[in-house]
Amino acid sequence: MRHLIWLLFLPGKAPSPCFLCNCNSPVKVPTSLITWTGACLYIPCSYEHCFSFYKRSLSNLTWYLNPKYSNKTKEFHGTVVYSNRDPISPAFQGRVQFQKDQDKYCSLQLSDLQPSENGTYGLRLIASSNANKWKWITRILVNVLDSPPAPEIEAPSEFRESTSAHVVCSIAYYCPDYKITLSWGGLLPHNPEIFTTSSVENIMTMNTLTFTPTWEDHGKNVTCQLSTPTGTLSSESSLVLHVKYAPRNVQLTVTPRQTIKEGDRVTLKCETNGSNPAVSVYNWKKDGLQLYQEQEQSWGFYAEADEHSGSYICEAANEIRTVPSPAVRIQVQYAPKDTRVELLTGSQIREGTMVIVSCFCKAVPPVSLYMWYWNGQHIESQTQKNLHFDKILSNQSGSYHCEPENEVGTSKSRAIMIDVLYSPKWVRITLETPHRILEGSAVTLNCSVGSSNPPVIKYRWYQDVRQYRETQEGILPFVASEEQSGNYSCAAENAVGSIQSSPVSVDVQYAPKGVNVVREPLGSIKEGDTVTLKCSVTRANPHALQYTWYKDNVLQGEGSDTLRLPAMKSADSGHYHCEAQNAVGSTVARPFPLDVWYAPRDVQMSVAPRGQIVEGMEVMLRCRADAQPAVLKYDWYRDGQWQEREVQDTLLIENVDVGISGHYHCRASNQISSGDSPPVLLYIRYNSRTIAKKAALGVGVGLAFLFLLALQEEASSPRACSGAYEQEEQEILLSRSEPRRRAPLKPQRPVSSVGCLNGASSEAINYATLQFPPS
Ligand SMILES: *[C@@H]1O[C@H](CO)[C@@H](O)[C@H](O)[C@H]1NC(C)=O
Ligand SMILES: *[C@@H]1O[C@H](CO)[C@@H](O)[C@H](O)[C@H]1NC(C)=O
Ligand SMILES: *[C@@H]1O[C@H](CO)[C@@H](O)[C@H](O)[C@H]1NC(C)=O
Ligand SMILES: *[C@@H]1O[C@H](CO)[C@@H](O)[C@H](O)[C@H]1NC(C)=O
Ligand SMILES: *[C@@H]1O[C@H](CO)[C@@H](O)[C@H](O)[C@H]1NC(C)=O
Ligand SMILES: *[C@@H]1O[C@H](CO)[C@@H](O)[C@H](O)[C@H]1NC(C)=O
Ligand SMILES: *[C@@H]1O[C@H](CO)[C@@H](O)[C@H](O)[C@H]1NC(C)=O
Ligand SMILES: CC(=O)N[C@H]1CO[C@H](CO)[C@@H](O)[C@@H]1O
User: Fold this and answer.
1) What is the pLDDT of residue 698?
2) Where in the sequence is the signal peptide annotated (predicted)?
């Protein structure tokens, strides 16, 4: 082994290279090449590093076409294309170029290739040093084609819109003396991003296309063309571009229209102007909100007003991108609906106030015209949303409804009732008994109201300005009386107000009132005086009066309200009255007594009781006289002697005594004078006890005498003296007034005689007899 290493570094002649390296492939060449007729062939060739040792001793270098090994000669034979020792084949004469730099390279170039020159090209290298020989043969397959082949296009597996891509066009050919050109064709000129790079390496001619595909490039036929040095287009390859791009020009279309009527069938279609790959899903959005996501390109519905109006967008999505369409506004039109009428002003509507009624509805398109109806009747002048009453009138009450209209149609609202409240109207008062109203008759006033809303709740009645009565009904019945004459008006009142009528006159007619006889002059009337009586009437309606005069119901005169009585006589005394008469009736005055004054006359005195008067009894004297004026006072006399004065016409003597027996008369006096009654004997007898006592006392003689006297008187009393009065009358008189009780009169002297005295009058003499009681 040590020996061997030494050999390696043995100085002197070259040692055997076999020890130094293994150089099976001395050159580097392509294994095959293509070219075509007329083109040139360039066989690049360079020495391998391992060959450098042998290179120095390289003796024979020959390029053969189709070299063949000969057993006989142990050598290769063939068409010599190039040789450093031998001449080249005449067929290649002038067409061969060998590499200039022969140290490193062994390249060969043949021009104007002929089809026969197809085959195997071999490079034979022989190196010899001393006795050593090293031989190599390197073969290259060369395919001489008839014409240039199509270049190869190498493209990425997919193209995407907006993503830069490289496409390489190449051909395994290069020859310095016959340079071909690869150029790209079929690209759209608008694409600014296209650029190409040509390069040559390892017998390759190539052109790289760099571009950013757009949707427009999709489907385009891109060609790579091979041109000979003369510019002749010789071959080409093409590539149909498949560009993936997002959905293009996404548009939402609405069928039949964007503006549709409620209930119409609407179809929305999301259209694109191409998408690669196809749209995988469609997204529907309304007013920014997701609605549906579906594969279908179309979406249909029956339009509903509230639901379907809005702004729609569809989105088309593929694997590249999701692309929205521009928004499309869909308007679902419908005739006005939910139409209603509302009162904008207060619900209590008074006449003269402002009232606004408004018509509300939903409508698309907006309402163009509002029609208003009053009690079903079209109000021509009103076309606005609001029905405006500046000052509503009572006759504008009623039901109102509106009917708004748009292009699609109309709709009717329900009616609203407008009830205009107002004070009573046309308040009139009428007299239901229009003819003459007599006192005591029934009168009815009628307060009529033309109309009132709300109804009248009460009526006030006025008589000559002052309030008189309040009623629920418009009728005021009453019985006519004088005080009820006057101008009447009524006021009808409801919740809104009160309205007063103009007055009606009630003229209650009545017979004269306060009819009285008035005398002139006043004072006492003496005989001969003149007296005027006037019939005074306080009031009467009507005033036209007729007078009639009566005295003691006997007609005295007619026509004048005065009755003149000249030269009064006593006989004129009496009760006068007048009767005043108007159209209604007559009224009689109270009889007016007219007295002609005269002194008392026919003065009469009476005694009660009648018959025997016994001592101890009660005796009443009564004086009666005819006098004008009436008797003022009565004076009583016994036996001509004044006893008493009384205002009353009676004198009561209690417990009479025999001693007061005598002739009594009375004198009646008035303002004029006085008159005396005829005397009346008052004879008082003893009673039985006194007689007994007297008898016991021995005075029986006197008594006996009296007794006899009495008997005589009984027998001889004159007829003229018989009582002028009836017993009954006397009793009545006695009972009328309780006479004043008097102490017994003082006895003056015993009555000794009995008789009739003649009085001033012509009447009979009165007697009173005293009798002894039966013993
Ligand atoms: C050449 O000789 C080799 C052996 O030396 C043999 O195998 C081959 O067949 C021979 N070729 C021809 C053409 O005689
Ligand atoms: C040219 O040579 C190749 C291989 O070198 C061969 O495949 C081809 O058939 C030949 N062409 C012709 C026309 O002889
Ligand atoms: C592309 O162009 C070439 C040449 O212009 C043509 O032969 C080929 O049929 C075309 N291919 C398509 C898909 O159009
Ligand atoms: C695509 O766009 C072109 C031009 O803008 C137009 O003519 C064509 O109809 C569109 N195609 C579709 C499917 O929208
Ligand atoms: C309502 O009354 C007013 C006067 O008060 C009158 O001018 C108008 O014509 C009346 N309208 C109707 C519809 O009766
Ligand atoms: C009151 O007057 C009105 C109108 O004049 C009339 O219609 C009505 O009948 C009258 N009422 C009575 C009770 O007379
Ligand atoms: C009633 O009215 C009439 C005229 O309208 C008037 O002359 C008269 O004085 C009135 N009467 C009263 C009592 O006011
Ligand atoms: C070793 C070898 O074959 N050498 C040859 C090189 O070329 C000349 C000329 O053709 C030949 O004579 C040699 O024999």
Assistant:
1) 63
2) 1-15
